[in-house]
Structures are given as structure tokens and as C-alpha cells.
Design goal:
Layout lengths: L8 H7 L6 E5 L2 E9 L5 E9 L3 E5 L11 H13 L4 E3 L2 H23 L6 H14 L7 H4 L2 H7 L6 H7 L10 H10 L5 H21 L1
Parallel strand pairs: 4-5
Antiparallel strand pairs: 1-4, 2-3
Helix pairs in contact: 3-4, 3-7, 3-9, 8-9
């Protein structure tokens, strides 16, 4: 599970040799407290949960009916997650694709804006929706339906989003897989994505400044 999974669906489907492609989405907020390398070459990462959300699992490579052949494997992983107090559910392909796009909208609206201390507006959401309709026309998602995502913002209000954490740590952010993806696909299909383009440029400018200061 990772932010920006929507752009990875097709490449992953093309490179896999056989079997199903499982993906997941979560809105649980978390922040990394430490990252320490051990003598055995493994890294121990300590994280703090900053807000409860929803986690789902499913297959994006099932048949047209959306049914999953390897239900047992998914349910095993689900039971392990639930046993670890990480509430998880298994959904069909259409529901998973919808959730992945919803998370994409959430990340494109929140992460870049918070990273540059800017504000979000409905025009940016409309750009994301326009690109979604080009890439996944079989899904009908309207603006009102997406607004429930902002409930997740309240649940994770104390969370420092992953893009901001990456920027502060001097790591490359996920902007290419979020707002950058919306911008690239939008431009390919003649969608007006000027606001997404501006956010992408500003975040990359911050990356360059951070890397310059850190060297």
C-alpha cells in the first residue's frame, strides 16, 4: 500500500508474469519517529499513529465480474491485520478502484497544499475528477461524493502528511505520482490542469531548495 497507486496499476499489471495483483488503500495517519539501521543490515522504523482511518484490500486483476480468485490469501492477510488492531476489510475490484481514486483525490488535495502551506479549492478537485473520468470512465464519481474525504482530514488532523515528512527529511517526495500524474494525463487529454501544474512546480522548487541547503 502506498500513496499514488493509481499510476502504478497499469505498469504493475504489465510486468507481472502470472497470478493476481493485490493492492490496498488506507487513510490511517502516521508519522515516522525514528529510522535506525542495525548491525544485521535491517532498518528499524518507529512510527506513531496520528489518526484512525479505513484500510481495504482487493485485487485489481480479477475478471470482468470483479471477483477475486485468491480470496483465501486476502482473507488471511485481513485476519492478520485485524489481529494487530489494524481494522481491514476485503472488497471487490470495483470498490477497490473507487477507493484508490478517492485516496488519490485526497492526497492531491491535501499533500501538496499542506507542503507549501497553501490552500485547497474545488477547482483543484475538478481537475482530479476530469483526469479520473479519462483514465477510469467506468467509475461515476461526483464532487459531492468526494467531499466525505474531508472527514478523514478531521480524523487525522494532527498528522504531518507523508509528503511534508519527506520534504523535511530531505527525501524525494511523491509529487510525481500524485499531482504530477494528474498534470501529465490531463495534458495528454487536453484537460485544463493549470492548478495542478502550479502545485507540482512549487513542491519541486521546495525539494530543490531543501536539497541545496542540505548539501
Amino acid at each position: 500500500m502506498s500513496n499514488g497507486l493509481v499510476p502504478l496499476i497499469r505498469p504493475l499489471q504489465e510486468c507481472r508474469r502470472e497470478g493476481e495483483l493485490f493492492m490496498g488503500s488506507t487513510t490511517v495517519g502516521a508519522g515516522k519517529l525514528s529510522d535506525v539501521g542495525g548491525d544485521d543490515g535491517l532498518r528499524a522504523i518507529e512510527v506513531k499513529e496520528n489518526g484512525r482511518g479505513q484500510t481495504i484490500l482487493g485485487s485489481v486483476s480479477g475478471g470482468k465480474d470483479g471477483k477475486v480468485d485468491s480470496v483465501e490469501l486476502l482473507e488471511l492477510f485481513q485476519s492478520q491485520m485485524n489481529a494487530a488492531s489494524f481494522p481491514t476489510s476485503v472488497v471487490e475490484r470495483s470498490a477497490l478502484l473507487r477507493a484508490l481514486w478517492m485516496k488519490m483525490f485526497l492526497n492531491c488535495l491535501i499533500n501538496p497544499g499542506c507542503t507549501i502551506n497553501g490552500t485547497m479549492n474545488e477547482e483543484l478537485l475538478n481537475e482530479c475528477l476530469s483526469v479520473q473520468r479519462v483514465v477510469s470512465p467506468q467509475l461515476t464519481i461526483d464532487q459531492d461524493e468526494v467531499k466525505f474525504l474531508f472527514d478523514e482530514v478531521e480524523k487525522t488532523g494532527k498528522n504531518r502528511n507523508s509528503m511534508l515528512q519527506d520534504l523535511e527529511a530531505g527525501r524525494k517526495t511523491e509529487i510525481d505520482f500524485l499531482t504530477g500524474y494528474i498534470r501529465r494525463v490531463g495534458e495528454e487529454h487536453g484537460v485544463d490542469v493549470r492548478r495542478s501544474r502550479e502545485l507540482e512546480v512549487r513542491v519541486k522548487d521546495l525539494e530543490r531548495v531543501k536539497n541545496t541547503v542540505g548539501t
